[in-house]
Write a structure and sequence with these properties.
The chain has 3 domains: 279 residues, 4-Layer Sandwich (Metallo-beta-lactamase, Chain A); 113 residues, no CATH class; 56 residues, no CATH class. It has 12 helices and 22 strands. The strands form 4 sheets. It has an 8-stranded mixed β-sheet, with helices on one face. The chain has a 7-stranded mixed β-sheet with strand order 8-9-10-11-12-14-16, covered by helices on one side. A 5-stranded mixed β-sheet has the order 13-22-21-19-20, covered by helices on one side. By secondary structure, it is an alpha/beta fold. The longest helix has 39 residues. It is globular, with a radius of gyration of 22 Å.
């Protein structure tokens, strides 16, 4: 490859200039994220692995361990790490203290990395990062796990002026944060893949909404391996399912693992072999479901949750069920009859509490979550998530005063146009949750409403 890019692994883009790898994104090349719950779905071929290890710059979008992976970064210690300008800067501090060469990219500023490669970074309110990569005049929009909250209008503007553009994005996250139980101890079933809208149709709508030339499935390529989370594997999409329902005349769907030449505008698929399936016991990752919490650990967990002021305004309690014993943490100043039980093994739970990475417990899908009282159609959203994992853990905004300053800073960066965009995104998300709580996804009413929604977005 002379000038162009590869996509490989879970969420790795490799940009080349003059035959050398210049930039890589979110390299997960070692380790098992989410307390061993996730492993690689496909091998990274030797050529791409060598390019990852030989690249000069590494961009990290956000703090999830399939994007910022410590075991992987330990193999890239000599690289220059580039980060979005997230409020809180917890990632920057952590990597700096470990001796990495870390640089923060200011929002909405182009930075040239080589003769034919420049980048522009945007950080959003959910602590997600967006990277725009200009490779020889071709524009790559790397949304990874995020939605560019408040910034889609700006992305569309840049895409309109690019002769060739690409969207790289997570499209198949339906199985994340889904290990919910009713109060009788029964798992709340997920909608089978056969009953969901075809994934290709969702990809088509997103590609046409932004106006890109090409779309590449991204940030989606893992599988479950822990014995207590492997149940969710049947709900995760396989590579061949991404094209189902994609029929756009305006955008082209490329393979998830692809090499694109940014001189000739030609592409070839990358042959990434699927990894062998395996089931690993939780004990291999330090988790024993029978271990109890010590009194000191209960105190630390109570301090962690009670320090997040927003929780006390919305919930009565959080109950931690560990080793068969319940530990109720009081939150409310008055009774709302709402609470949540998290049943989890001691090792991973206390690691998440002590290191302020509670998202890893939710996404791992082995922790059992039971909602008590009236939570509404969004479940943990919007009052637990994103306030705990995004604003508090990653953004360091735990008190109301800190939250006010946090939101004010992101609104300042977005400007009035971004604030309108953000408001629209939030209304859309809540409307979807409300509709889903009353209408089946397979009903004619839901499908008609979804069709109208996507037509309006294109307009």
């Amino acid at each position: 490859m002379n000038i162009g890019f590869d996509t490989i692994g879970n969420a790795t883009l490799i940009a080349y200039d003059g035959g050398r790898p210049v930039l890589i994104t979110d390299p997960w090349i070692a380790g098992a994220p989410y307390f061993g719950s996730w492993t690689f779905s496909h091998e990274i071929p030797a050529e791409q692995m060598a390019a990852i290890e030989g690249s000069e710059f590494v961009w990290l979008s956000h703090g999830h361990p399939d994007h910022l992976n410590q075991e992987s970064l330990s193999r890239l210690k000599d690289k220059t790490i580039l980060l979005p300008n997230h409020v809180g800067q917890i990632i920057w501090e952590g990597l700096r203290d470990r001796g990495y060469d870390v640089r923060i990219l200011q929002d909405n500023v182009w930075t040239r990395l080589s003769d034919h490669i420049r980048i522009l970074c945007i950080s959003d309110m959910n602590q997600d990062g967006v990277l725009l990569v200009d490779v020889n005049g071709r524009l790559i929009v790397d949304l990874n796990d995020g939605g560019a909250l408040g910034w889609q209008w700006y992305l569309k503007k840049l895409i309109r002026h690019a002769p060739v553009s690409f969207l790289l994005k997570l499209f198949a996250g339906e199985a994340d944060m889904r290990n919910f139980f009713d109060e009788q101890g029964n798992r709340i079933p997920l909608v089978p893949k056969s009953q969901r809208a075809p994934l290709g149709g969702i990809i088509q709508h997103e590609a046409e909404h932004l106006g890109v030339s090409y779309v590449i499935p991204f940030s989606s390529f893992h599988k479950m391996q822990r014995a207590d989370s492997v149940w969710v594997q049947e709900f995760i999409h396989e590579l061949e399912e991404y094209a189902a329902g994609f029929a756009s005349e305006r955008a082209r769907l490329l393979p998830a693992f692809v090499r694109f030449d940014c001189v000739t505008d030609t592409w070839t698929p990358i042959d990434a072999q699927r990894t062998a399936d395996a089931i690993v016991p939780p004990e291999a990752f330090g988790d024993n479901w029978s271990e109890p919490l010590s009194s000191d650990e209960v105190t630390r967990a109570r301090k962690y949750f009670q320090s997040i002021e927003h929780l006390s305004e919305r919930f009565d309690f959080i109950n931690l069920r560990v080793g068969g014993t319940d530990h109720a943490i009081d939150l409310a100043r008055k009774k709302f009859n709402r609470g949540v039980t998290f049943e989890a093994p001691r090792g991973s739970l206390m690691c998440a509490v002590d290191n302020e990475i509670f998202d890893d417990m939710l996404i791992g899908n082995f922790m059992k979550t039971t909602l008590h009282g009236d939570w509404g159609p969004g479940g943990l959203y919007p009052d637990f998530c994103p306030y705990v994992p995004k604003y508090a853990d990653n953004g360091r905004a735990r008190t109301q005063a800190e939250l006010d300053a946090y939101f004010a800073e992101y609104r300042r960066r977005m400007g009035w146009r971004g604030a309108i965009d953000l408001m629209r995104d939030q209304i859309e998300a809540r409307s979807k949750n409300l509709l889903r709580s009353y209408v089946s996804r397979e009903s004619a009413v839901y499908k008609a409403t979804e069709h109208i929604y996507h037509r309006l977005r294109r307009l």
